[in-house]
């Protein structure tokens, strides 16, 4: 297997790790207005991801760094062409991260509600815009190969907001919401757990319907793709896992529901990667302008060095993250949350 293909797979694995792990983070943030009836409820929700949310986001940093080093042309074209969308994602992530740290710095309803809003919208926008971006990579974007080297994006943010792109964004957002609700049910007890399961059941139905429409649309769009067999297989596994996760949640088996959602996100992304390969960005201006894996890759020496670094570092990262989740594996209760000032009663 060529190193260009190896690094396409490595970047794909890192992005899958990011969406699986930070995906339930986003879902927990989205659940604040629905499950957080009191300030204590909201503190319980935030504490379910408190020890791990920043660790989960490092997967995006590592994926971005790997993308920059392995496929600099892909990185440059996507980050310049999707600049406004990525800027909005960055602002949302910053506000969300700041809110986790500053929410508890002062007492008072107004103070906490401002940061709760930042957490909610900072959890909605990133998966929505990421979904729009990845859907457009599959559908194709107006990029043009430049004679002097590189590619130039000739669209705008509105170009990305087409029906297929918006459906992809909504599906990714709902997948993260469902994933987060199941995680809340997995990490809490009593009324909070029951409410999370009920909401996950209702949201899950909508997610299944829209995800099925998106996967079918993706398959139809790629009927002439040489990887169509792999695309159908990955889409089928994603669909079965999503329905299985919904059924497991209905039966009160949050652990299996979480596994089902994890498999769904992983194979939904594999469906997208299968539709892309061996390309990185498909041009709507003609096949001659399409960016291939080989054409956008770094030199073989660079890829070889990066491969050795990845071989030694990725197992350490995975081991450390697994250990962190093991340490913080217990369920949370309201009794674990210290009593606040009287502002709690009006929160």
From TrEMBL:
<dbReference type="GO" id="GO:0005886">
    <property type="term" value="C:plasma membrane"/>
</dbReference>
<keyword id="KW-1003">Cell membrane</keyword>
<feature type="transmembrane region" description="Helical">
    <location>
        <begin position="226"/>
        <end position="248"/>
    </location>
</feature>
<keyword id="KW-0812">Transmembrane</keyword>
<dbReference type="GO" id="GO:0046872">
    <property type="term" value="F:metal ion binding"/>
</dbReference>
<feature type="transmembrane region" description="Helical">
    <location>
        <begin position="163"/>
        <end position="187"/>
    </location>
</feature>
<feature type="transmembrane region" description="Helical">
    <location>
        <begin position="118"/>
        <end position="143"/>
    </location>
</feature>
<feature type="transmembrane region" description="Helical">
    <location>
        <begin position="305"/>
        <end position="328"/>
    </location>
</feature>
<dbReference type="GO" id="GO:0070069">
    <property type="term" value="C:cytochrome complex"/>
</dbReference>
<dbReference type="InterPro" id="IPR003317">
    <property type="entry name" value="Cyt-d_oxidase_su2"/>
</dbReference>
<dbReference type="GO" id="GO:0019646">
    <property type="term" value="P:aerobic electron transport chain"/>
</dbReference>
<dbReference type="GO" id="GO:0016682">
    <property type="term" value="F:oxidoreductase activity, acting on diphenols and related substances as donors, oxygen as acceptor"/>
</dbReference>
<feature type="transmembrane region" description="Helical">
    <location>
        <begin position="6"/>
        <end position="32"/>
    </location>
</feature>
<feature type="transmembrane region" description="Helical">
    <location>
        <begin position="255"/>
        <end position="277"/>
    </location>
</feature>
<keyword id="KW-0560">Oxidoreductase</keyword>
<keyword id="KW-0472">Membrane</keyword>
<protein>
    <submittedName>
        <fullName>Cytochrome d ubiquinol oxidase subunit II</fullName>
        <ecNumber>1.10.3.-</ecNumber>
    </submittedName>
</protein>
<comment type="similarity">
    <text>Belongs to the cytochrome ubiquinol oxidase subunit 2 family.</text>
</comment>
<keyword id="KW-0249">Electron transport</keyword>
<feature type="transmembrane region" description="Helical">
    <location>
        <begin position="74"/>
        <end position="98"/>
    </location>
</feature>
<keyword id="KW-0479">Metal-binding</keyword>
<keyword id="KW-0408">Iron</keyword>
<keyword id="KW-0349">Heme</keyword>
<keyword id="KW-0813">Transport</keyword>
<dbReference type="GO" id="GO:0009055">
    <property type="term" value="F:electron transfer activity"/>
</dbReference>
<feature type="transmembrane region" description="Helical">
    <location>
        <begin position="199"/>
        <end position="220"/>
    </location>
</feature>
<dbReference type="Pfam" id="PF02322">
    <property type="entry name" value="Cyt_bd_oxida_II"/>
</dbReference>
<keyword id="KW-1133">Transmembrane helix</keyword>
